[in-house]
Amino acid sequence: MKKVLISLFLSLSFLMLNAQEQNYSIMMSQQDDGTCMYMRSSLEMVYLDSDYFPNKELVDASWNNFMDPERNFPNQYNKHCANIGVVSLPVDPENEEAMTKALTRYINNNKVANRIVQRWFNYNPSGTINYDIDYPENPEAKINMQTVFERGYYTVNAGDEDVTMNSLKRDRDIMIKELSMKLLPFTFMTFTKLSFIENEPVAAVRDAAIIAARLTRDKAIENGSNPDMANMICNIAETAAHATYLATKDGYTLKSYTWLYRLVWDDETERYFNDKVIQNPELLLTSDRFKMEYVDCQSNSSVVLISINKSFGEIIDLAIVRNLNNVFKKLQDRNDVFKVWTPILDFYSLVSPNLSAPIKVENGVITAEIGTKEGLRGGEGFSVVDEDGNFYGYAEVKKGKIWDNDEGFGAEASCYYKPQLDKKGNMVTATTFKPKKLKNTRTGLLLVNPRPPKRPVVTARIGTKEGVEPGDKFKVYQYDVQTGELIVKGTVKAVKGKIWDNYYYNDVRNEMRLNSRETMMNVPLKNRDKDGLKCTATTFKGCKNVRPGMFIRKVK
């Protein structure tokens, strides 16, 4: 175990982002094999308690469900787990300035930043030594580097984190300092307060909207506007206000208020830690040198309607997940430092170079019984030969006509997608190909020598949960190992009909954890994407220079 962690520790020497460039929420690096890696920001989320409101117990329980990293916790951040607990502050969250001052005062008075740093270095007051320079992850020391090691290199794949190790050699003491400086400045903390209000008692809002519409109408007529036109506009406004009231009066409104803070970890703090704290770890408890800085705040409201298909607790669970994900989306849009980066998947053809398959020709249509299971994604080319190897021409996989034959039961809950049907309602059982300089086509010829598509499909594991919508623009970045700079390679757009519904993915994954397969049969079947395939990542288009290992980041 020691050798493994040291190997990981030494591999971190390829962290190339300058400490001054702390405007990025991840740090880039590159392996010897060219694979581009990154380290994610860390996040501590704190719940601000509220006075009693309707169904408070269910709301509190839903918050706990949200915090479960196996369920709904934002999976593009590392959960920091400093265990700050629930905080009570008797301040109206609508008063943003007063609440910010109260939170900052609470953070300073309770040395919250110290607790964040303690978690980074696994502070253990009963340790037998201060720090073990020969064995930095030593659990018997008062401070150790194990958490830093564990968060070193990550790749993102459906929310699963795999530590990637290397065996590069470098002085470990120097690496500790560099690694800390790279990781700790990207530690964030949110404080969230929730309220849950019955909609029926706020019918006065409807009445106020109607009164405002009538006053506007009367003033417009006084100023010489056409009375018929003014009355028509007023009637439309009254009808809309009443329709909204009728649609929501039997539900609730969930309101959230979230404040975002960031750990201050600059050169001065770094020097203090290395010169003082390592020799005297108790300073993590008492020092005033560790600080959190305010970044931004965001509120969000969402209407929660009653559903006959879910329990009330499940409805609140879903409402909180979507409300808070929307809050995070807004905070990321407004604050570059908090914005996440997403690696582009290995989108080149996954087809084996030795793949071959016989074709079938019927009514001039060329098909073969291969599909997504064999790696087809659209646009792949094949040579066409006969049994003796004589060349006949070329055929290309027709986009939108790929057989989705990878239907196994697994983490994607693929069997919960609707059956793949063609335009006539028949089951799809083969992939369709279009001929390219192909002569004398007949059943029995073979597809051989597969080639990647001219314009490979670009995908990334973000979707509806991160607020991705059709046409959203993302810049594509490449990390230059020689200069240590991030180079903009172009822009891509999210493709309509090819956006990953990872809300559904999370819901199904949670149901699979909690229920039997028989219970899962009641989960509504998911629509396929516009090409008839299971959508397990969002597809982008527009940049010819994009390659695997690059990153995309949403444009404001």
Short account of what is shown:
The chain is α+β, with helices and mostly antiparallel strands and 556 residues long. The protein has helices at 2-11, 56-66, 96-109, 112-120, 146-150, 172-183, 204-222, 227-248, 267-277, 283-286, 312-334, 502-514, 517-520, and strands at residues 27-30, 36-39, 42-48, 78-79, 154-157, 160-163, 187-198, 252-264, 291-304, 342-343, 357-358, 360-362, 365-368, 381-385, 391-397, 431-436, 446-451, 458-460, 473-480, 485-494, 538-541, 551-554.
The largest sheet is:
7 strands, antiparallel
SS element count, helices? 13
What is the overall silhouette? Answer: globular
What is the count of structural domains?
A: 4
Mean pLDDT value: 77
Unreliable stretches (pLDDT < 50, length at least 5) are: 1-26, 29-37, 154-173, 408-413
Gyration radius over CA: 28 Å
Look at the helices and sheets and give the structural class.
Answer: alpha+beta
Gap between N and C termini: 44 Å
Strand content: 15-25%
The strand line-up of the biggest sheet is: 11-17-14-15-16-13-12
* E-strand count: 22
What's the helical proportion of residues?
A: 25-40%
